[in-house]
User: What shape does this take?
Amino acid sequence: MKEHNPVKSNTYKSSQNFDGEYEVIIIGGGVVGTSIAREFSRYNLRISLIEKEDELSFGVSKANSGIVHAGIHSRAALLKEKLCARGNFLYNQLKSELGIPFKRVGELLVVKEGEDVNELLKFKSMGEENGVPGLKILSREEIREIEPALSKEIIAALYAPSAGVVNPYELVYLLAQNAIKNGVEIKTGEEVISINDRIVQTTKGKYKTQFIINAAGLFADRISNMVGIFDFKIVPRKGEEYLLDKKLRGLVSHIIFPLPSKNSKGTLVIPTLDGTIMVGPSAHEIENKYDLKTSDDVCWQIFEKARQMIPAIHSKHLISTFAGNRPVPVSLKPISERTPAELNEDFIINATPVPGFINVVGIQSPGLTAAPAIAERVVEIVKEEGLELIPSQSFVAHLTPTKKLREMSDLELEKEVRENPDYGKIVCRCEMVSEGEMKQAIASGAKTLDGVKFRTRAGMGRCQGGFCSFRTIEILAEELNVSPLEITKKGAGSNILVADITHRKSN
Amino acid sequence: MEKPIIVIGAGPAGLQVAISIVKNFQNKEGFFPPVIVIDREKHAGGILNQCIHTGFGLAEYKEELTGPEYASRVLQEFRQLGIELRLSTTVIRVDENKMVTTLSPHRGLEKINALAIIFTTGCRERARGVIHIPGDRPAGIYTAGLAQKFINIDGYLPGKRVVILGSGDIGLIMARRLTFQGAKVLAVLEANNFVGGLARNVVQCLDDFNIPLYLSHTITDIIGKNRVEKVKISRVDENMRPVWGSEFELACDTILLSIGLIPENELAEMAGVKLDPSTNGAVIDENYMTSIKGIFACGNALHVHDLVDKLAVEAKEVGKNVAEYVDLSIGNSSTKGSLEFNAGTSVNIDENIRYILPHKISGKKTVKFHFRVRKPLNDVTLRMGNFQKRFPYLLPNEMSSVTIPAEYFERIDGDYLELLAVKGVKKVKGKEEDSELIQSQIVREVKIWIEKKLPV
Assistant: This one.
């Protein structure tokens, strides 16, 4: 658990008017933005990533279901399916290089009484066309052997062993860590206000660049508009997720999918890496991109659907809930002019008529899976657009593996605490997170309570921060050299404490 | 090195049980192993440290003390007895062989082979996610105990305009505390049609400050982008469903949740101790020993207490039992001792009772039962054979108890002995064929069945 020293300098100060000069600026710090940043860091380039939220992944990625899809849901030859298959393949490498939390648990696309089993054959053949390995149609008995908790109404399933589960925000943080190690400058809490002639103006500075990668998720339309591109808009499609008690760990071992609808892959039952079972997501369009409310109606619907597949699931097992909005790309061209890709809500990944401006937009499912492949594609596009890519001699693909305290053996724990007593001070008892790990999270960029929470799991356990919140705030305040009053939950405006009621000495 | 007795948690239960064990050792012949009390906090006292209101120690010290004052008194006695206290030490694991693994910055990782373990790990608060309050997830939503800590220990006010969900004692106390600190408490909401906390707290915390209490109401929506901005409140029916058209809004920046306490037993579960799903505390016998020999539990970790004085009485009793157990285990005493551990007779309850402790009895010893009812009941008489106890009322928020002397257990006739609480019936029969007739005459009843089973 040591500090990572960046291999290259991370600040590119420049001439007179600019606060920085780069070859590539990436707008958006979710899984797509950070994947692209890391990919570019393989070359001798000055790269910056700008994220408007206080923490990376706090746009769309944080609420992702965390599924690395096998790629069996293709209905047409779309870019997203191609990239999904390639992305899925690249996850092994990501795991070995970055130590991402990832496991191939396999998926079961199930069909119940009254539904058409032939749908499964269609998905199987399309999957095979896309190069998805190991696909097999299972009978009732075979399904029951590998997934005994499934409803008796399930008559057949398509089994795809290459599907997996990943922790999406941890993935983002590890990608970012490696990108920073390889020289990428990451700016959080900074919002792009305007772009003119390859000059990016943000709330904190003005930067000159050669290429701009628009990976701004829900606000990618706003960024595109800044350079005069108005042919699409991003519509938020909300998904609510419900987390069930760890006591149910082992109830399901594969990701369970129903037959998909036009708009979504459906309500799933997901065995997450953290040991909780997650049910969801729902899918319905909303107006407000910031609307992340969960509701009773949707809760009820999700549980109904989940119970149809796994009858043992019950809302009494609920421990937490959250929601996320998918960035759905909607073409603003007349319907007659829309391409099949546009009609199918395919990814928009292309160079644009605006020199240097690359769109990476509308990355909803299977975006997480496709991310490593999207990054490869973007680098290719930029190369085609004339950027010289010289492989960097100092690029380091690996991250020093760091184990979490709760994953350590007694021997490892003993050694760790002896070397640094901060690791023996447990702050979050439910998830066994130490002061040392919290300080590390802050050193790698966390500035908010949720930032520490999402990097360490502190506050995600049984007591949901009931015991550890203040000490976490205190550590943030100490490390960031501010008053505890300035610490926020998730960014500006979400302060936790409102007044100091003692007569203590000010900072 | 001899195996010590480990007490996990230095709150009032842990401190009192340790004191009791040591004092009981002093009354016995022989050499006894040390008692070590372990706590993850920097200070002993547990939750008392943040309870700066008075009302503690009335029975024990005949004074109305604040939580920290009460803790001080207990700690004084504790220190005089020279019991070892390990603070800033987190127990990370307990196994069924009573191996306790601890982690602390100064001692690193340590493994202790314990002779006996007493879980006095207290409880945690129920959080939002479990009851699914729909809406946004902004900053400004805290459990009442967390808010209490922010104010009383850390010295920060967590909000200025507050709505409190839940009329448990912590919520009521915090309504007053926040008001003292200059915040505006707009309302206390309670989904049930009866108050969760003690009656005196309703008077002293709400009535005295003109804070409105809305029974049969709950929060149906939380609105706020970064920080809470307002809540939607609805009246609910007996099935907890919002009543259409009763919704109103309150602009606020803080929501306090006082929606229940859950005994903290993650470590006990790790060790394989059986838990009672209706309390989330350990299943115990009349000696407060759990399903694992030599592991005991008491205090809030076992069941949520209302008054620290009652908890102290419980802890003292448990301490006596632990001392007896240790005495037998190390073979000091030549006599077999008066305790029979983990006896096999189960105590069963009906739907009126939420839980009863202990879960198992030997039938040879006088037992003090603690129980809570689900809903308020009036004019209840508990009867078992010739034994009788009348309660003018039984409330879910006040722990009830009944002591049944040993001789009543001997007179078990037939397959079961019925302990009935009966209103308006003169005769009670212990025979099955009459029970239906009796039930039809009973207006409200509390049944505590004691079913005699063969010892396991």
About this structure: Residues 79-98 of chain A form the longest helix (20 residues). Confidence is low (pLDDT under 50) at residues 1-9 of chain A. Chain A has 13 helices and 23 strands.
